[in-house]
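hiii so my PI (J.) wants the whole complex modelled not just the main chain, which honestly fair. so below is everything: two entries, each one labled with what it is. i double checked the lines twice but i was tired so who knows lol
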Amino acid sequence: MGIFLDLSLNGLFNGALYALVAIAIVLVFKATQVVSLAHGQLLSFGALFFWFTYVAFGLPLWLSLLIALVCGGLLGFTVERLCLRPLIGQPLFSSFLMTFAIFMFFDGIFQLILKGQALGFPDFLPKGIIAVNSTKIFVGNLWSFGICLGVFLLIMLVFKYTKVGLGMRATAESHKLAQSAGISVRRIFSLTWIMSACIAVIAGITLARVMDICFYLPWGMIKGFIVAMVGGLDSLIGAVVAGLLLGWLEGMIAGYVDPFIGGAIKDVAAYVILLIILLVRPYGLFGLVKIERV
Amino acid sequence: MLPAGTFNETYGQDTAVIRTPLQWLMTILGCIFLLAVPLFAGYYVTYLINYVAITIIAVMGLQFVMGYCGLVSFGQVAFMAVGAYSSSILTISYGWPFWASLPASGLIAGLIGILGGSPALRIKGFYLALATLAIHYIVIWLVMELEITGGSTGLHPPSPTLGNFVLNTDGRMYYIIVPTMIVMTYFAKNLTRSRVGRAFVVIRDNDLAAGAIGINIFFYKLLAFFIACFYAGIAGSLYAHWVQVVHPDQFLLTESLFFVGMLIIGGLGSIVGVFFGSILVRLLNEGVLFAVPALGAAFPALPSHPAASISVSIFALIIILFLIFEPRGLAHRWEIFKASYRLYPFSY
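here's the output for the full assembly
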């Protein structure tokens, strides 16, 4: 029982990190209908900014966090303005390929900066262990879990109660209708990218806390992508639920299946789950089902 | 666009790929030149042409599924791996000759491609793109874990033989790889002009309309995947017997992404575009490999092996520029150029 609880908790903590990345992707999709691969790099550069300010220059935590957020937001804004804005009106597929090209472009720069090594990342969250019976809970993990939930709630509130959120929801519904109702769709696009870049930065920092800044960090996005797909690309709740679910399942498989079968099934488990869920529900668990019939 | 003064008067003329005597002359001269290259070109050029030709075969398969049928696939390299491994296993474990294992590996890759493409029956667009990504990871994982594929040690397929003649050098493999590429190109060019190719295009442009006019969408989508993976399998088999080593690390996801990029640069929905995209990107990669040591000497701050990262960045930058300024790719520019000289001197 103790092992089960340990595995579950660990899986849920990982799942929260996936969910955070997924939220950033879902946010962009909801407002702009673009599925963004570029977020993999937004999150790794966010972690890099934080590393440079916090570790290399030794600034205080809040200041370096602020700088990382501002730089990440700027990066998101620039990406949208320079690369995605010219593609408005073209097939969505080309925007998708564009984000993929952006991913590759920054990936090259990222690898140049890393020079083939991993940058050690400090555990900046409060340390400590809470022991309940035989189960240990790391306070740092609890914090990152809390951060994820906090960001999610914040986004939900923004979507529900502010004018910007209303504009975003309207834009998601239809660009043309939103435009004719007096909403500046361009401004909404920029704002969305800035917001989701900031979330990606937070996700990047919390991810890097666990896995350091290594060459593999940008590919953490793929897990977030899977989560977004499983949950449904246009559903924020779906992102969180699917993230926790996937993390938990991965933990279970790592703990109970891997030792018996051998080989790292955990690594492909997410993809298999994704395939199964997409075959059963093509628009994800919570996604809006578009009905098309011939 | 026909050259000025040439008219189609019979059905045969209308359907011909090569239309005028001048085009025939250029085609034959081009083929002779291509086949004569290893006789006078050095080792490096032959190697490069082999490499590019294999890339062209793989990308041409992707062109069917992505450019013509509109289904995004990030799994092309995985199916190349399937072809390479099945060809190696057939020749090593079962003692098949290369000439039998080459088409067989194409068929095996194609059949597995149908399995891999089956999500396309239910899902579309981005969801499908990610599903093919999942298939890539699953295939590579299987290759790593299964016993028959040699896991992380890989396999060493033998060189093809023709009687007592062993095709074990770049120059000799050239005479298998390049003719295969020409045959595959001819097949692709004709397929796109047939009923099948037109069905693909309708499905890409509007699948609801395609269903409404009686095209069996499921059948044609699976057929597109089958053809794409058949091409990938052939390319993989050629690659395996050319470099004589197969290893999971040769089939990275980035390679699939490069293939997609080549399609965009060359032009989606065009067979000529495949040539432009593949040749441009591969030459660019080689150029970066040459240029980077010089860069490293000029800027010592750069890491010791930056070639890979810089080439990735440059490649991505070119894709970005193409997407913004010429989304229809080099093939479109080529069409404009062709029209301009064919209409000369009547350029209206």
